Amino acid sequence: MNFKLIIVVTLFSFFGCNSILSPKTGDNIIAIVGSNKLRTSQLEMVTPKNISKVDSVFFVQNYIEKWIKNQLLLEKAEINLDNKIQKNIELMIDNYRTSLLLYQYQQMIIQQKMDTAVSDEQINEYYNYNAVNFKLDSSVVKAIYIQLPKSLHSKSSVRKWIRSNKEDDIITLEDYCYQNAHNFDMGEEWIYFGDLLKKTPKKIKNQDRFLRNNKYIEATDSLYKYYIAVLDYKLTNDTTPVIFVRNKIHDIIINHRKVKLIKDLENNIYNDAVDKKRFTILNN
Q1: Rounded to the nearest 5°, which phi and psi values hold at 214?
Q2: Residue pair 239/135 in contact by the 8 Å Cβ criterion
Q3: What pLDDT, in 10s, does the model give residues 171-205?
Q4: Burial of 28 by CB count in 10 Å (0-12 exposed, 13-18 middle, 19+ buried)?
Q5: Location of each CATH 3.10.50.40 domain in the chain
Q6: How high is the pLDDT of residue 248?
Q7: Are 36 and 2 in contact (CB under 8 A)?
Q8: Quick check: 284 pLDDT over 70?
Q9: Quick count: other Cβ atoms within 10 Å of Cβ 113?
Q10: Distance between CA 157 and CA 169 in Å, rounded?
Q11: How far apart are CA 279 and CA 281, in angstroms?
């Protein structure tokens, strides 16, 4: 009987014919190498959930074999590595354990006590104080955008309305678009100029230079006529409109709260320990 078959037979002798992951009242020993023992509870922790009996058998079989090989190799490492290296490893393990425990405890405190609600007012306040730190990586515009079927014969009226500064003409244009346009936007929100151009066949290589000198675009393809009237724009490296950084500011505010909460936690625990004289600093 080969090594892998021995493992499978051993597994079924411990678990019976039920699922490898079936709950047990005891914590059986599966393998022993020296003083180290592999138990069923360890296998249950590492075995993926919702897998078939056959898959679980193969997974556990491979895990046991790998565990045994690692333990045998570990014995050799402990014999052959000098004490200094082993002490350094123990220190690294201790530091890593400390970091994990502190992280898990901090996360528990954050989940229990931190306020995660961020209002629009808080976002706008942060933006107003820090707007200089938010720079555009490409130009943005507020622009009227219209996509009309080529078959329509009202191009001159559309050109007149879209270029007009009169409120009545803009209202008329919007009503017209609701009735006739395949797609349109009246320019109430900021949008990246490049994203707007993607809705048209128009190609513009230097967008910043174009916006400095042009406020109106017409383009045509086989089916549609496109109109763009730029109402406002910001160029690359200008201050980013708040709409583009709202999510980023939200995350910054949350992160600041986390840092403050953890810092306050550390200080409170430390000050309490000082008051109760729970530690001593020795001067050698």
Answers
A1: -140, 140
A2: yes
A3: 999 999 999 999 999 999 999 999 999 999 999 99
A4: middle
A5: 136-234
A6: 96
A7: no
A8: no
A9: 10
A10: 10
A11: 7
Tokens coding 171: 């209202």
Q: Which of 1, 89, 74 is nearest to 38 (CA)?
A: 74
Residue 148 near residue 182 (C-beta atoms within 8 A): yes
Whether 32 and 64 have beta carbons less than 8 Å apart is answered as no
Q: Which residue has the tokens 């350094």?
A: 88
Work out the mean pLDDT of the chain and round it to a whole number.
89
Burial of residue 138 (number of CB atoms within 10 Å: 0-12, 13-18, 19+): middle
Distance CA(52)–CA(70), nearest Å, equals 26
Given a cut of 80, whether residue 103 has pLDDT beyond it is: yes
Fold of 136-234: Chitinase A; domain 3 (3.10.50)
Q: Which residue has the tokens 């490492």?
A: 77
Amino acid at 131: A
How would you write 124-189 as a 3-class SS string?
HHHHHHHHHHCECCCCEEEEEEEEEECCCCCHHHHHHHHHCCCHHHHHHHHHHHHHHCCEEECCCC
Strands 183-185 and 191-192: unpaired
- Report, as an integer, the average pLDDT of 111-117: 93
State the Rg of the chain over Cα: 34
Does 146 score more than 90 pLDDT? yes
- How far apart CA 188 and CA 170 sit, in angstroms, is 12
CA distances from 111 to 265, 269, 270 (A): 14, 18, 22
Residue 200's contacts (CB-CB under 8 Å, 6 or more residues apart) are 147, 217, 219, 226, 228
**Percent of the chain residues past pLDDT 90, beyond the cut:** 73
How much is the pLDDT for 28? 87
Please check the confidence at residue 111 and state whether its pLDDT lies above 80.
yes
Highest mean pLDDT among 30-39, 73-82, 121-130: 121-130
